[in-house]
Amino acid sequence: MTAPAYRVKVAALLAYVTESAMIGAPVAPVLADNPWDTWWVCYRTQTPAPELGLKVWARPGACERCLTMAATPDEGPAG
Fold first, then answer.
1. Nearest-angstrom CA–CA distance, 30 and 19
2. 78 has pLDDT over 60
3. Which of these, 68, 69, 10, lies nearest to 44 by C-alpha position?
């Protein structure tokens, strides 16, 4: 069974962030499809987005409350 495309993209983001941290490379700005994708990566790594070098970018029409909650380390389990 193949994972849905949206899950593959967020898994790739997790792999990118993890490998960048392992080799000491900076993380380039990433535009996630959903702010909760960034939150999930932070949850999986147990590291706040700023420490990972991740910035949450809003797509047009994004829910401002969701964006704020996902981007705030203290709001999630990694904070």
1. 15
2. no
3. 10
